[in-house]
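Amino acid chain
________________
===
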Amino acid sequence: MTEPALATGTPAAFRPGTRRPVLEVDDLKQHFAVPHGFLRRAGGRVLAVDGVSFTIAQGETLGLVGESGCGKSTVGRTVLRLIDPTAGTIRLDGHDITRLTKRELRPFRPQMQIIFQDPFSSLDPRMSAGDIVAEPLRVHGLAKGRALRELVAGLFDRVGLRRAQMESFPHQFSGGQRQRIGIARALALKPKLIVADEPVSALDVSIQAQVLNLMMDLQRELGLAYLFISHNLAVVEHISDRIAVMYLGRIVEYTDKTTLFTRPQHPYTESLLAAVPVPDPRVKRQKRLLQGDVPSPINPPSGCHFHTRCPYAVERCRIEPPALREVKPGQWAACHLR
């Protein structure tokens, strides 16, 4: 019996083997109404996320990549239930949290945390670093007094900050140190899942490596599951186990990182990889520059969403949406030509 495409469920190859699944997302959709006219009535819908499915196991990192505006961050925020999904199913550690109310969702909040892109605006400038890290523990009533301070001090030690810096304010830290504060805050409630939304894009390259290595060390120690969102393929290759490539709200390719970087199957993935700079000036390779602009998610193209920019598109691509199917063992792509 064959497994269904992602539009109706998660194929077996997308599910972890012996490792316990922490996050299971099935046919997730996030559509936003577009106000129109003087009375601001709904005049259309933005198909920000349009039928996305994936699974992340304990101790695993799934990289989610694509151009700006493809829906990566919306997936992350919807998975965390920061915004309510239009359709689909979200399971956290086996529990369906898709339609839970705020009160019902509260016991699950400690299990899923986020690391934000901007390490400065995500920290309250009026609070000390120690208070920022302690806030989740206070909100959930997990510690107070001396015990709270010791927990925060231990988190500072774990992310490579000095305990004396607990009294300092965000403006007194470097960018890399501020992101370490954000990581410590995310770890405070001992989560099972962390959504990292472009966590190193605002940092210098040398600091990026330090933060990424810290995240990988913490994952090995604590068995964390990461949904790592980025447009930087080199960063994603370094930290991810598997990679999902998004285009205009849909996953167009999904496989392990080694296969993706050596044998990409979708033309969009090929174009993304061709745009990555090579640090060796002697290496020459053919560039496949994408033509045209990204179509509007309010009125996406018929058939394959990528056909308006694809150099290989045929008539079928303009009419029939391709299903995400296994084109090679363990490698899934949404392309009629593969």
